[in-house]
Structure formats: structure tokens, C-alpha cells
Amino acid sequence: MLLFPGKKEGFNLQAVLFDLDGTLLNLDIDEFFPRYLKKLSQKLSHLMEPEKFIDHLMVATRAMLENTDPGKTNQDVFMETFFAPGELKVEEFFPQFEKFYARDFPLLNNGYGPVPGAHEALKVSRERGLKIVLATNPLFPKEAVLERMRWANIQDQPFDLISSYEHMHFCKPNPQYFEEVLSRLNLVPEETLMVGNDPLEDMIAGKLGIKTFLAEDYLVERQESIPPDFRGQLREVVPIIKEL
Predict the structure, then answer these.
(1) What is the pLDDT of residue 84?
(2) What is the pTM of this model?
């Protein structure tokens, strides 16, 4: 069901933040992530037993999710945690990571494509002269983000910011992630719309005063959720972007 109370007096939309997986791209993260872990751990099995590797990777991922230090990028946190002093060798693993994302990550495409309404929402945003952000959770290197953009056929879209682990310092659902995005583009919350399919990680943007649209095409099921300003199928965000 679409909740659309209409344009609010004094509200002037300046930017739209779009989540990627399950929002613009019809990728189910619960289906994708186990395949990704299996493929990556197998490719690096000559350096570490797969189960042990996955344990290390998940600990490092959790460290990125929990980081609150603005002086460290997510990549910094990942590297410090994964390559704990004296335990693993950066010079052995890191080139293999880069090779995996360049050669093997594209093979994880399982017939993914754009969610209906994705291209129209981006088109309308551009036509209105809005800033557009690919606000995917920055847990992956940029090459992995760009590859998933290719799956959604949005690789040529003129995003003003694409979040990846190399340059972002926080992750969703930390509100500091959204504060950093706003700061980078000189935006104010009250003139920004967040579009995503996660009722916690994306809708928490509303805590800052950002308007929120919960895309229900590939809705993430969570016990904890934050009520959105709007909700519906992704294609139903188009008239909202036109009118806000």
C-alpha cells in the first residue's frame, strides 16, 4: 500500500538516496551472500581453510558494521581486523582479493536485473535536477559495487556519490552513515529522500529527518523496523519524486 500525503508546505526535495540490493537490483541478499562466501572462500582455499576464512571474514565485516571511528574508513577497519598482527599476511591475501573481485565476482550474477521502476525513478530524479546517491551499505570494494550496478544496468547513471568501503567511514544502520553522505554533498535531511527495502538499515535515515520510502518489491523481513513516510512497490516512488 502506498502512503502519500502529498507535498508538504516548505518541503523542497534536493536529493534522493537509493539503496542497491533489493531496491534497484532484484538481488535477494539471503540468497546471494552464502554463494558469495562459498565462492570467495574456495578461491582462497590455498591460503586458508574455507571455514576458518569465512570466520575471519565475518569478524572483519562485523567490525565494519560496529565502527564509530570517523578517522578510519571501512577498508581500514576491515584490513586491521582481518589481517590481525602476525596472524595473516597482507601480501598473500590482498592481491587474491583484488583478483577475485575482477575475475570471479561477476560470475555470481544469477540472472539479476533492475527492479521494475528503477530506471524510471532515476530518470525522473535526473530530470528534476536532483542529486542522486547510490546508498548501498559500504561493506564491499568499489569494484564489487560497480559490478552489481552493471547487473542492474545502471552503471552509466550519473550518481553524485557511490558508497563503497574505500571512502566511507560508517555502515548502515548507523545514522552516522547518512550524516556522512549528507555532509559530502552539502545536503540537509529535510530536503532528502531515502529509498530502500530494509525497514531498519534504510528507514533509520528517518531518525535524522530524512524522508523515507520503503520499497516492498524485495522487502527485508525484520523484527525491528522503523515506520517509513511512504511505502509501496518501487515504481510507486516515481510520483513521489515528481511531487515532493
Answers:
(1) 85
(2) 0.93
